[in-house]
Every structure is written in structure tokens, then in C-alpha cells.
Design a protein that fits this description.
Number of strands: 10
Number of helices: 11
Largest sheet: 8 strands, antiparallel, barrel
Helix content: 25-40%
Length: about 325
């Protein structure tokens, strides 16, 4: 039996989790005006029917690290295997099959220059049947990181959003450093952003008070934030696409900022390469995508060329779930 689409309360819950992925159900329930049991029941149902998952993420720029978007062209019969192999890596955050299954798109966050070079210059170049590898360094994020598409739904009223938003300070100046205890904590939160303090204590071997202090410090400095992972189809997004825009430097900032305001845009950033702006968009149909390209993208001053590729399959969003 097909599950009913998310209703207004589901969208409010998803938006609440986007604002604070670790907010207790009791706090969310109070803000939404429902019972704790209702929030818990809705969370479980969305987890089962829409792949809901809270994932701890790190701001790589604050750690002095680079983020890359890599395009790999290969025959369709090996694209799936390559995508799954990349998805299993801990330093990838998104892996998609695009361009009719002849291209794998991978967002990677190498922890060091050595790790970057090993993947880009050695492993991928030596992978059989990979026709070409193109790597784009992410220079600036216009929309993404702590912000997600759910922030654009405006499912919550401004006062509800303010009541849920954690009262943290401004991010500390980069680059920051992590120790082994920080890394152990982050590794658990990448698997389950809502892991309890008891679970974090057991997994990391730290005391509960130490876990709380570290978690607060990582969040307050901006290193750690939480994202909501979910299937897109239940929310009416049957079509996803990658856009590569060629923009002159003088218009780069204006185009990027405008893209960030588009309801269809889930991510937008400036990158190295001839196509120097990349965006991820989603919508209900190819007709809606055509309208978006012809009207909103076509109306942007400074865009000289656009390459569009439909996403055939999301192999990895934030966390890899091979059973899904």
C-alpha cells in the first residue's frame, strides 16, 4: 500500500528538524502545539516511508580543508559499481548517476592534500573504463551547508523557527583543529545525528559531561551542523538536475546570490573550471524544469551558457544506505 504524502504537520516537523536536528521531541511538540507522542509517531513514519535521517556534518572550510565536485565519465555497465564504491568512502557526501547513466557525480571532502591527490591522481585515473575525470574545487557556497531546501518551505512561522533555533555564537575564525576525541564524536554523529548522550558516551569512551561539552563547542564554533536527509519523491520532487553555468567574474556573486533565492535550488556554489557556477535543482516534472530554465535561469543577467544533466539515481545523499 502506498503511503500518503507528507501533510502540513509532517512538513513542519521536517522544517523543525532542519532548524535543530537534535531538538528533543518534547520541545518540537511544544512549538508545534501537539503531543510528544504525535511527534515521535510522525518521525518514525517519515523514517520508514521517506527515508528520514538526521546526519551530522562538518564545515570543511573552518577546518582549512577543500571540497571538490568530481565528474567521472564511464560506460553505463560500470557506472553503478563505481558510484557504489565512491559512496562507501567516508570522504564523500553526495554521489549521483547522471547523464543517462554514463557519468558519476561525486562531492568529496578529502581530509588532507595527500588523500585528495591519492584519489584524483591515482585511484580514479587508474580505474578501468573511466573515460575522463574532471575535478572542480568549491570556492564559495551561495546556498547549502547548514541551509537546506526545507528552509525554503516556510512550513514554520518565524516565531516557531526562532523558538527552535539553538542560541549559538558566531563561528570562530578558521582554520580550527580537531583532536581524536572530536573525530570520534563526529564519526558517530555522521551515522546518527540524533544519537543520545548515552550512545555517544558508549561509542566514544568519553564521559557524558565531556560529550556534552565537546558537542556544544563543535556546534557553537560552526564546525558541526545537522542536515535532514530524506527521499525527494514524497515531497513532490520527482525530477532532480545538475546545472553548470558559465558566468563572467564580474557577475559571479550576483548570479550566485540570485540562485540562492530560487525555490528550486537545493545547492549553489562557485567552482573552478570553465563552468564556474554549479547548482542542484529539483521539481515535480521535466515541464517544471523547462519553465525554470527558460524563465528564471534565462532571466539571469551574466549567464553565458548552461549545461543541464538529469539525475537518474541518488546513490548517496549525506549517508550511504545500500539497502535503500
Amino acid at each position: 500500500m502506498q503511503s500518503p504524502p507528507p501533510d502540513a504537520l509532517d512538513l513542519k516537523l521536517l522544517h523543525a528538524l532542519q532548524v535543530d536536528g537534535r531538538a528533543p521531541f518534547s520541545r518540537i511538540a511544544e512549538v508545534l502545539g501537539v503531543s510528544d507522542q504525535t511527534v515521535a509517531r510522525r518521525f518514525r513514519r517519515l523514517r520508514a516511508t521517506a527515508g528520514l535521517r538526521i546526519v551530522g556534518m562538518t564545515d570543511e572550510s573552518l577546518l582549512g580543508r577543500q571540497s571538490w565536485i568530481v565528474r567521472l565519465r564511464c560506460p553505463p555497465d560500470v557506472a553503478g559499481q563505481l558510484a557504489n564504491a565512491l559512496a562507501r568512502r567516508s570522504d564523500t557526501s553526495h554521489v549521483d548517476l547522471i547523464s543517462g547513466g554514463t557519468e558519476v557525480l561525486c562531492a568529496m571532502r578529502p581530509r588532507s592534500r595527500q588523500a585528495r591527490d591519492e584519489l584524483l591522481f591515482d585511484r580514479l585515473q587508474r580505474t578501468p573504463q573511466v573515460v575522463s575525470v574532471t575535478a572542480h574545487c568549491l570556492l564559495h557556497t551561495f546556498y547549502g551547508g547548514p541551509l537546506g531546501w526545507l528552509d525554503k518551505t516556510q512550513a514554520l512561522a518565524p516565531d516557531q523557527e526562532a523558538a527552535l533555533r539553538p542560541p549559538y555564537s558566531e563561528p570562530a575564525p578558521a582554520p580550527l583543529t580537531l583532536d581524536g576525541a572530536d573525530e570520534a564524536l563526529l564519526a558517530v554523529l555522521r551515522r546518527d545525528g540524533r544519537a543520545t548522550f548515552g550512545e555517544l558516551q558508549t561509542s566514544t569512551g568519553q564521559s557524558e559531561s565531556a560529550v556534552k561539552r565537546r558537542l556544544e563547542r563543535l556546534r557553537s564554533t560552526g564546525i558541526l551542523y545537522f542536515k535532514v536527509q530524506h527521499d525527494r519523491e514524497p515531497l513532490g520532487h520527482g525530477i532532480s538536475a545538475m546545472l553548470w553555468l558559465s558566468v563572467p567574474p564580474s557577475a559571479l556573486d550576483a548570479v550566485g546570490r540570485k540562485l540562492a533565492t530560487h525555490h528550486e535550488v537545493r545547492f549553489a556554489g562557485a567552482t573552478t573550471g570553465q563552468a564556474n557556477v554549479v547548482a542542484t535543482v529539483a521539481g515535480p516534472s521535466t515541464g517544471e524544469l523547462y519553465t525554470y530554465l527558460s524563465e528564471k535561469i534565462g532571466g539571469l543577467d551574466g549567464v553565458q551558457a548552461v549545461e543541464t544533466a538529469l539525475t537518474l539515481r541518488h546513490v548517496k545523499q549525506l549517508a550511504y544506505e545500500p539497502s535503500r
